[in-house]
Amino acid sequence: MLLKLHQNAITHFTSLLNRIFLSSEFSSSWKLAVIIPLLKHLKDTSNQSSYRPISLLSTLSKILERILNKRLTWFLQSNNFLNGAQYGCRRGCSSTMTLAELHAHIHTAIFNNSRLYSVFFDLENAFPRVWAPLNPLHSAFIRPPRSPP
């Protein structure tokens, strides 16, 4: 979509995004989403947990979110704020890499005739519960627009 825009439109859009980043103010209309419940494969239609909520956001909001995500990821990685053992939700990292590292630890423990302790826990439905604790963090980065004086 953006590649087909005229250069003047791209310039104005870039200026708008930079003003949002500098002022930390985000239009409340860009936060509005249409929530569509999507039935999970082969699940009971009468059970609420059988649905996955899909939110449809403004395209401009999605673009801003992607840019912010790239900037934040770059900052966290370049300043070594991310633990090397953190594989989830990182580009180039996967659950397969986690299993390979665990396999290597098991192999090393067997080879050295030592013990290896592991703790596994399931974070079922963890994603919807993340937003409440992160709300203050979110407010620190992006504030609602100020009321006119």
General description of the model:
This protein has 149 residues and is mainly alpha-helical. It has four helices and two strands. It has a two-stranded antiparallel sheet. The protein has helices at residues 7-23, 59-78, 95-111, 126-141, and strands at 34-39, 51-56.
Major β-sheet strand ordering: 1-2
Total number of strands: 2
- Low-pLDDT runs: 129-145
User: Main beta sheet, described?
Assistant: 2 strands, antiparallel
Could you say which overall geometry the principal axes of the C-alpha atoms support? Answer: flat
- Give the number of helices: 4
Calculate Rg over CA atoms: 21 Å
Write the element-wise H/E pattern from the N-terminal end onward. Answer: HEEHHH
SS-based class: mainly alpha
The multimeric state of the shown protein is: single chain
Please report the distance between the alpha carbons of the first and last residues.
37 Å
DSSP strand (E) fraction? 5-15%
Keywords:
149 residues; single chain; 2 strands; two-stranded antiparallel ribbon; mainly alpha
Q: Topology, pairings included?
A:
Blueprint: H1 7-23, E1 34-39, E2 51-56, H2 59-78, H3 95-111, H4 126-141
Antiparallel strand pairs: 1-2
Summarize the structure.
The protein is mainly α.
